[in-house]
Amino acid sequence: MRVLLVEDEEALAAVVRRGLERDGFVVDVAANGVDGLWAGTEHLYDVIVLDIMLPQLNGYAVLKALRERQVWTPVLMLTAKDGEYDEADAFDLGADDYLTKPFSFVVLVARLRALMRRGAPERPVTLAVGDLTLDPVSRRVARAGTAIELTPKEYALLTYLMHRPDEVVTKSDILDNVWDQAYDGDVNIVEVYVGYLRKKIDVPFARQSIETVRGVGYRLLAP
After folding, report:
1. How far apart are CA 57 and CA 96, in angstroms?
2. Are 18 and 102 members of one domain?
3. How many C-beta neighbours within 10 Å does residue 45 have?
4. In the chain, which stretches have pLDDT less than 70?
5. Same domain membership, residue 105 and residue 21
6. Strands (E), 70-123
């Protein structure tokens, strides 16, 4: 699950980011409304956590602009503004949920998972490519009914591939969508994790569903 956190309080953003990453989320952080609007428009996210009081462009303006551009990613407003009119304004502009500071991290995660379950209308409840299935709500992965245990990063990689069956995706595509924007390490980390994934979803089942497209990237084959 990929989250965009738009929050200008650096310490709070760092704490929330670390906590979400421990729970298996991939988190991008924007520190102002302009950067948040750009990221929310240019990249695909499962949910956006959006503060209201932001520099350059406030959260209401960001939310309004996202909806005007037909970006329907679920948005949770995370803010110190707790007036009923503030909350009503947020919902009128297209917010999906509203959480005031200070907040319980457990509640935040539960709200994010609830938004993911609702998601966009076109998103399937369970992803399936042949007999390989992934339930984004329970985070269960199985091949022909046999459960497969994945690490958070392996799970995120598989989710990205399963959203694009039979499409060739480059290492750069995968880094942009599975690793966070701050990652500046070796691009070959993608190859390493593809290898880990093959050992879990293919090798035990005598399959070869993740294809290497030489000089380009990888493709998850649909039967």
Report:
1. 20
2. yes
3. 21
4. 81-86, 119-125, 137-138, 180-182
5. yes
6. 75-79, 97-100
| Interatomic CA distance for residues 99 and 94, integer angstroms | 15
> CA 195, CA 117: separation in Å to the nearest integer?
30
CA distances, 15 to each of 4, 7, 11, 53, 77 (Å): 14, 11, 6, 18, 17
The reply to whether 133 and 198 lie within a common domain is yes
Domain around 139? 127-220
Q: With 0-12 CB in 10 A as exposed, 13-18 as middle and 19+ as buried, what is 166? A: exposed
Domain CATH number, residue 27? 3.40.50.2300
- pLDDT tens, position by position, 47-69: 999 999 999 999 999 998 888 78
pTM of this structure:
0.56
Rounded-to-integer distance, Cα 77 and Cα 68, Å: 17
Contact between residue 157 and residue 178 where contact means Cβ atoms under 8 Å apart: yes
Measured CA to CA, the distance from residue 144 to residue 134 in angstroms comes to: 11
Is there a contact between 47 and 78 (Cβ–Cβ < 8 Å)?
no
- Work out how many domains the chain is built from and give that number: 2
155-172 pLDDT, tens per residue?
989 988 998 899 999 998
- 113 and 142 belong to one structural domain: no
